[in-house]
Request: fold
Amino acid sequence: MTALLMRVLAAEDRAHEVSRAPRPHTARSMIAMPMYDYKCLDCGKESLIAMTLKEHESGIVTCPACGSKKMEQLITSFIARTTKKS
Reply:
């Protein structure tokens, strides 16, 4: 497989892992939110983080592993899901 295809498949796997995670039943958890890949510059862990556009625009992201605010957004592919068939 090509490196790009492997990254796409890995991103899909991470998205499925996040979607299967238990969440509290709140109105916010029922809304689909964009997910962003980040890498912590302190501990080196890569994380897939779901956040609103407003949260993403603020630029403040905390590493879920070590709590550091030194995070770098990774450039990755995405999949758009719609309710309409095209």
About this structure: The helical segments are 3-20, 53-58. The mean pLDDT is 77.
